[in-house]
Amino acid sequence: MKFPVQTSPHVEARSNVADVMTVVLWALVPGTVVATWLLGWGVLFNVALAVGAAWLTEALMLWLRARPFQPALSDRSVLITGWILALCLPNLAPWWLPVVGAVFAVVVAKQLYGGIGYNLFNPAMVGYVVLLVSFPEAMTRWGAPIEGGAASLTLAEAAQWTFFGVLPGATGFDALSQATPLDQWRMVVTQGGEVTGAGLSIWQGGAWSVWLNLAFLAGGAWMFYRGAIRWHIPVAMVAGVLLTAALLWGIDPERFADPLFHLVTGGVIFGALFVATDPVTASTTPRGRLVFGFGIGVLAVLIRSFGNYPDGVAFAILLMNLAVPLIDYYTQPPVFGRKDRVGTDTEGR
Amino acid sequence: MPEARATISPGLHGFHGGLDLDYHKAPACDRPIGEMPLVDEYVLPLHMHIGAPAIPVVAVGDHVRRGQLLARPDDFISAAIHAPTSGVIQAIEPRGLPHPGGLSAQSIVLAADGEDREAEPLEPWPDYQNRSPVEIRARLREAGIVGLGGAVFPTAVKLATANPGGVETLVLNGAECEPFISCDDRLMQEAPEPILRGAQMMLHAVGASRCLIGIEDNKPRAIEALQAVIDRLAADEDERRFEIKVVPSIYPAGGEKQLIRTLTGIEVPRNRHVTDYRLLCLNVGTVANSWHAVVEGRALTERVVTVTGGGVAEPRNLRVRVGTPMAKVIEAAGGYTQGVDRLLMGGPMMGFALHEDAVPVVKATNCLLAMRPVDRDPTPPPQPCIRCSRCSEACPADLLPQQLYWYARAQQFERSHDYHLFDCIECGVCSAVCPSHIPLVQYFRHAKTEIWSAEREKAKAEHARRRFEFHNERIERQKAEREAALAKKRAAIKAAQEKAAKKDAQEADAPANANGEGRKSATTSADDGKSAASMSIEAARARAKERKARVQQGPRGQGEPGEPGEPGEPDGAAPPSDESTERPGGSS
Hints:
Number of helices of chain A: 15
Distance between the termini of chain B: 70 Å
Shape of chain B: elongated
Number of strands of chain A: 0
Subunit structure (chain B): The complex is composed of six subunits: RnfA, RnfB, RnfC, RnfD, RnfE and RnfG.
Function (chain B): Part of a membrane-bound complex that couples electron transfer with translocation of ions across the membrane.
Oligomer: heterodimer
Low-confidence stretches of chain B: 516-526, 553-588
Largest sheet of chain B: 6 strands, mixed
Order of helices and strands of chain A: HHHHHHHHHHHHHHH
Protein name (chain B): Ion-translocating oxidoreductase complex subunit C
Membrane topology (chain B): Peripheral membrane protein
Family (chain B): Belongs to the 4Fe4S bacterial-type ferredoxin family. RnfC subfamily.
């Protein structure tokens, strides 16, 4: 009898890329629900708009690049890109903001690099940063959480605002919006005030950021349990944030915020769990992940403290993305039976 | 039904990564080893072991008996081949090999006479203790013993790599980690005695002082059977050198270096021998057959083969004569079931798919695995790597397969080398865990062959360069020698002419006695000059002859660089000197 010849191994992987992505998508749910409860329907509009735009853009780009639709669209990675971008955007953002961000993320940061697996930078963060530098005003439209804030808008009212920029009755935008804690801190510091006197603490923005972070942590725990992420990057990133913030705070507590403030405000927890852990753009070795995460933590606090933008997580992630090939090369684990590290295989084969 | 598991031994070390697989050892493992009936024709490839092919010592038409030597080992790394049954040598010709490339190779074809008469065995050595390690190694070589775990490395050579008295621990490999395969498991259950006797003999042969037996925890019956014999030996003979170590069933626990790491904590690097660490690792089937060879004088003519998978009707283990066509073995296991579409030699992780089942069982054939599509998930097309690093987490060699893949794909083989490509043991774990279904191992095999062929090209170019340089050097030397000879000749002629001229001048100076006399003497002197010239030519010829003789003796002997020793190789341009148009060194 004759047989066709295949190569070993003759067992197939039990999971596929879509499975991995699905775990991440489920992990995003608790944070999104809590964010919607705290910040109103705008969050869901952002998600729907960004995810929809990202998916359509991916399809269009695949068509332009003459690539098969099925594998790329069914791997669900583009949904994550859109969703993560959406959760970074202000809850009172106009409709075109998530759309422009998602389109840019997918076209430039993902597809022009060759599609999934080939992008050097995290697409969602590229989209976010492009929006931040291009539309600074729209990117500050943060509605205040819960009481009397953006969450008090009904679905219809929120839709009217998102799509037509119309608010109900006599409500002014200022009544809904509120500077984020990081913005406030920046303002205090740039105006020469003292941080300690300004009453800035983790509770300053209300307990809401803590609730939101707990929801993200729940999602992260799920991803960890399902093996979609490893502990190294989140732990190292949080350590980087806390250590750098503690150092600066220890030097000048009047000018720099305390470590806990840094930890719970802005995108530290979300970024550590959902963005920095993106396997495509993160380091792949265990020690490399520690370096990569720690570097993000350090850079985020430095950018917050000395840079021009209130939050530094996105920039920090993109900067460390750039360093990944180098990190990976110098953090190779020692091969079986060999205690040296890199490129020192001087013995012949 | 949950598999019965033995208790894992304490104090093991484990290795990085690995994979918990579905083992599918039943139902083949639940049935005793059966006897494969005789067939009409046996095909014995001369190259069924690692090393040089054996050299036939029989001719077509010879009658042979079972166990008779058919082919002797060539070279140091090689193994003998014996007749699996009695019959007539029908042909010595190329036949299909069980090989992933579907190659053919010179094979001895034996038409069985059905009588299965035994040849005179080798002299049995029940007193092997009185035999030296050298004698035992010679016997193993004579009996064609090779590693039966699948690597088929000649056992005598393996023993010879041990430094004198340099082995402290013998490791018996009973960790059959590939799914589906159970031939070693059954052998340990049914014949623990020859295994342990063989191990005793090996301890003597290498001067080792203890023996660790590594068995996976999914073989409780094998562990029990061996333990019973060990207990009996301890009671009867005070034999206390054996210890069973139950290791976790994590693929590839049965890899030699993985097993040694698990049992001893020692990591043997790729470019070192296990014996450098005072260890020797042998498969349980190998030691059992070694015992048969040394103590009973029986050559290796059969082995246990697991015939299994959803593609055969009655999965089981069979004792099969080497050379039996695989199709017959499948028949003996009830034949194929409907829908079989893949036949492997070996397990699903490292075994290879065969083109056809007409090829023979060889000494390496531990398993014939016939698969149906329902035994596997369908293979989805590969997708891009998302760098999830599951491969590196599972790699037992601590490699970064995704990086290796990246550079192999980009044809940056130098870079793959930086990432220790050659430490890859091709166990297949990375491919099996990849969520993008990338055939990673395939890429690594390809990269390795590319690097090997690049190195061969480089070596060839280097050889050619050296030959060219040597050729130029020789031409220069010959030219210089010829010029020197010519200059000498000219000098001789000139000297003769000067001498003649001087003489003429003297004669001219002297008052002319007689014109005729003067003329005569001038002629004489010219003759003198001529003969001097011819003498110098003769001397030059003699020297050239001498040189030629010297060159013909061969510059190889003088250690000239790069001179081609291989006959038949072109030697660039022929030497231009007329006295030596033959190829120097070519005649040897």
